[in-house]
Amino acid sequence: MTDCVLTIRDLRLAFGSRRNNSAVLHGISLHVRAGEKVALVGESGSGKSVTARLAMGLLQESQKVHATGSIRFDGIDAIDGGREIASRRGNRVAMIFQDPTSALNPTFRIRGQFRDVLRSGDRRISVADADARAEAALAEVSIPDPKRALDSYAFQLSGGMNQRVMIAMALANRPALLIADEPGTALDVTVQAQTLSLMHELTEKRGTAVLLISHNLGVVREFADRVYVIYRGRIVEHGTTAQLFRDPRHPYTRALLAAIPKISGGGLPDLPERSPDFESPMITHEGCSEPEGLNP
Amino acid sequence: MTPILQLDHLGKVFSADGHSVTALDDVSLAFERGECHAIVGESGSGKTTIANLVLGLMPPTSGSILFNGVPLPGDRSRAQKRSIQLVQQNPLSALNPRRSVGASVRLPLDVHEIGVSAERRQRVEALLAEVGLDADMARRSPRGLSGGQRQRIAIARALACEPELIVLDEPTSALDVLVQARVLQLLHRLRLARGLTYLFITHDLAVVRSIATRVSVFQKGRLVETGAVDAIFANPQSAYTRQLIGAVPVVTDEEAQLRDAIRTGVPETATLDP
Description:
The complex is a heterodimer. Chain A contains eleven helices and eleven strands. Chain A has helices at 48-55, 82-88, 100-103, 110-121, 127-140, 146-150, 159-172, 189-206, 217-223, 241-246, 251-259, and strands at 4-16, 21-33, 37-41, 65-73, 76-77, 93-96, 177-181, 209-214, 226-231, 234-240, 283-284. Chain B has a domain at 5-75 and 82-90 and 164-264: 3-Layer(aba) Sandwich (Rossmann fold). The two termini of chain B are 32 Å apart. The chains are: A alpha/beta, B alpha/beta.
């Protein structure tokens, strides 16, 4: 498969010292093809965010992190090449975080932060060009007065506006892959719905691949083409969004879907918080196996 | 029958440095005994201000709050404080980490001088059992307990002095869905078994649908719409309510159909939303 932007193979991760550590990931494999929207969905402690952070090259530097397996992005194996991935951050791979207001630097105006982002993609870009591109990018995410937004500090803008700024910055250098970790979870539902549809529209238009990290199956259903369900460091089910939501097969996925309160009513089923069934083997839906070879 | 709680032209204005913000604007609303009445809205809607006013944590700027038909004074009696209890959103910060679980649940019994020492210990055990926790939980520290366990403890503590009304401020929004389902079930069972009334603050309309009997929708400090849950989901009258329901990320085709109908639907009568 040559069209994969991200391929993760048998990723294992433990935190702690060499002798005394706790395993967090027990062999995760997943892939994201060019232009595809893939979701990794799970509850707290499932390992979804650390998987994203490893793919971004954000964890490898730590002495307390022991990762094995492979993460290939842009021809680099991120397990050893955390630094190389990091050098491509914001350029070939970008990330959007849960809380947009704290992800932006509170001591600099948006304008300066946007210039830095654009400079990481093109070192020789002039200040005037950078500002013009930043304005256009903010206009594209429907920010009403881009000049004023650029002259603001993050705390002067609403959460929804900051999320739009983050999306504009993340996509400014046309990355091949966008990793979105719980985007909009900290926002109101109406604002969350707007930012998700905006992100969908822009990544679609540019053919940007997205790895969406979320605990919210509803958000996943609206946004993703394909879904991996992760439970306690293992992928338990993998299928297209239609397959997974119409025909959930793993006991854990079924429990999750049943437990979510529905706007159509129907009360709450009696379900365990944990069950040995949730640990049963992974289920892969038709046509969704991992690609052969390791050559993205 | 007299409603257990009435908000009568209730208003709250916050002011500082010459600026003022109207957090709650002339709200009149009745809560019937035994109901789970949800207060729904986004940030800035005034839902937390309502909780703070009902709990007596701050005085209203205008209007009054009646409890069982009697206006609540600024300085509440012990009995009045006892009858209205709170369960907060964040179970991690709601319990004192230096106090054992048993001591946390027992504290309201000590404060309100309910029973003698031996009785209080039994009460704590019974309360823990009622929320589905073992008696030996009493000796443990809340450190190392899960969010779900901590929220059960917070519920047991709220029940300790036999309140009539419990203010639930986003009680499950910090929990994982499987844990949330169990805690919602527990709350539902307790309400029926004890005849409790809930003032249930949430931003999640799907949670409202699954646990509440009535719902009041707030926007920018104003009451936009109120009614029985089934009626509001069948035919929301205000544009804002439709917008809120229309923004919920859903997981089934049935929900998606309902949501899309509501999103595009035309209300049968004029909206309350100006």
